[in-house]
Amino acid sequence: QVRLVESGGKMVQAGESLRLSCAGTGRTLSWDVMGWFRQAPGKDREFVAGIDGSGGTTKYAASVEGRFSVSRESAWNRVYLQMNQLEPEDTAVYYCNAGITLGAGWTRPGDYWGQGTQVIVSS
């Protein structure tokens, strides 16, 4: 069974950068579209960024476009989220996902979720 584990979340100051990692086990995920969702207190879970199997195509939510960058190392079932110019509004639990469908603007998640990693951005 596929398992995803996120790491890297912590408290940072506004304007700083942070890199999140997601490691997958269970089977190869090289053909899966993978990415990140987040959920802030009192809000619904929302799409943040996605990357296709080859790593050549990415998709971002408008709120993070130009600040966040998603990448992957498919041979090791690993995906990353580089977050720059962090804002207090980025505070959320960030979840890794595997199997994102290329529809609904890439925002439809797949079946596999990590447990999440907390990011807190203070002003």
Give a written overview of the molecule.
- Helix content is 0%, strand content 47%.
- It has strands at residues 3-7, 11-13, 18-25, 34-39, 46-51, 58-60, 68-73, 78-83, 92-98, 112-113, 117-122.
- Strands 2, 4, 5, 6, 9, 10 and 11 form a 7-stranded mixed sheet that branches. Strands 1-3-8-7 form a 4-stranded antiparallel sheet, with no helix packed on it.
- The N and C termini lie far apart (40 Å).
Head-to-tail CA distance between termini:
40 Å
Helix content: under 10%
The largest sheet, given as strand count, sense and whether it forms a barrel, is: 7 strands, mixed
Low-confidence stretches: none
Helix/strand-derived class? Answer: mainly beta
Strand content: over 45%
Shape: globular
Assembly state (oligomeric): single chain
Mean pLDDT: 94
How is this fold's topology laid out?
Layout: E1 3-7, E2 11-13, E3 18-25, E4 34-39, E5 46-51, E6 58-60, E7 68-73, E8 78-83, E9 92-98, E10 112-113, E11 117-122
Parallel strand pairs: 2-11
Antiparallel strand pairs: 1-3, 3-8, 4-5, 4-9, 5-6, 7-8, 9-10, 9-11
